[in-house]
Design goal:
Number of helices: 11
Helix content: 40-55%
Strand content: 15-25%
Shape: globular
Largest sheet: 10 strands, mixed
């Protein structure tokens, strides 16, 4: 057995596949690609020198050797998690005395509170401040050294010294009133102007609004009537009332649960159109603190946002997902960071 070839990531993949019985589900749970999960599993079986799964059966079945390994790895992982929790708590408390965090308002109801609770538990004597801001303001605050960590939409803005760690792939969708006959059932017909309902726009001052308008221009789509709003809440309430339709993201739709019964969500027509949401950290924030924030945010996004939404709208599963964990951190000067998001 090639013990030096066995990695922690391979063991995580092994356990995830053993739980789900499918590489696809394991990859989704871990936020990595199917090919990456397959590579880790193949390397683990090669290193062990034994088949850990019966690959001829669906769902995948753990072999007797795999079952022995599974029991031991689960025990080891439990011990590791306890150990990390203990050292993170002590480490965070000693590393930081003040932490300033800002997030887009899409996470106000779930991910933000989960992140705040985790950090407060880890450093009860640290001074925290939490803010809700649009992406452009979050990036400005980071550059002005007025916050330490931001969760925002990825942009092409040059941000020297800011590390970016991808969190979420968030596809754009169409939202229409849910009542019968309110709008065409064909998204392409709607985009072609085949309806009298007005198109409700996001403000051009917002990154989200500019991104949607740029995509519509690329598709050569024009809507004459202009109704602009700065908040998703107002737009979705108007759509739910039958006053128009809009283009927004799956995340923005997911957070507006009070309107779900009055809204019809449809795929955006044509090629895939999505935004990326990342965690941005200013230089000088301890790596351990960033690690806790990333891990907590990813876990909360998957459990509180992605899973409930995909369960109700399975067609979103391929697009609405965690960003790959094995993608390198990005320094917004264009250089790559030395670590990976986990």
């Amino acid at each position: 057995m090639e013990r030096t070839k066995i990695s922690l990531k391979a063991l995580e993949v092994f356990l995830a596949v053993a739980r789900s019985g499918a590489l696809r589900d394991a990859a989704r749970d871990l936020g990595i690609s199917i090919s990456t999960a397959s590579h880790h599993l193949s390397e683990l079986e090669r290193s062990v020198g034994l088949a850990l799964f019966d690959h001829g059966r669906r769902p995948l079945q753990v072999t007797p050797a795999g079952e022995v390994l599974r029991n031991r790895v689960e025990e080891a992982m439990t011990s590791l998690r306890k150990g990390f929790a203990e050292i993170w708590s002590d480490d965070l408390a000693s590393l930081v005395r003040r932490l300033r965090i800002a997030s887009i308002d899409d996470f106000d109801a779930d991910v933000g509170p989960a992140l705040a609770q985790e950090l407060i538990r880890g450093a009860p004597h640290c001074d925290f401040s939490f803010h809700s801001r649009p992406t452009h303001e979050i990036l400005e605050l980071l550059q002005a050294d007025q916050i330490d960590i931001g969760i925002a939409t990825t942009t092409d803005v040059d941000m020297g010294g800011i590390v970016e760690i991808p969190l979420l792939r968030d596809p754009f969708v169409l939202l229409l009133p849910a009542f019968e006959g309110a709008a065409p059932a064909d998204p392409a017909e709607l985009m072609a102007g085949g309806d009298q309902l007005p198109f409700l726009r996001y403000s051009g001052r917002q990154l989200l609004g500019r991104r949607i308008e740029a995509q519509l221009r690329r598709m050569d789509v024009r809507f004459a009537q202009r109704m602009e709003f700065e908040t998703t809440h107002i737009i979705l309430s108007l759509v739910a009332a039958g006053c128009g339709w809009t283009v927004t993201t799956a995340l923005s739709f997911a957070r507006a649960q009070r309107y779900h019964g009055a809204l019809r969500v449809m795929p955006f027509p044509g090629s895939a159109f999505a935004r990326d949401v990342s965690l941005f950290a200013r230089e000088g924030v301890p790596e351990g603190v960033v690690e806790i924030a990333v891990r907590t945010a990813r876990r909360a996004i998957l459990r509180l946002v992605i899973d409930p939404t995909v369960a109700r709208y399975p067609w979103l599963a391929e697009q609405f997902r965690l960003a790959p964990q094995d993608r390198p951190e990005v320094d917004r000067t264009g250089a790559r960071g030395s670590g990976t998001a986990t």
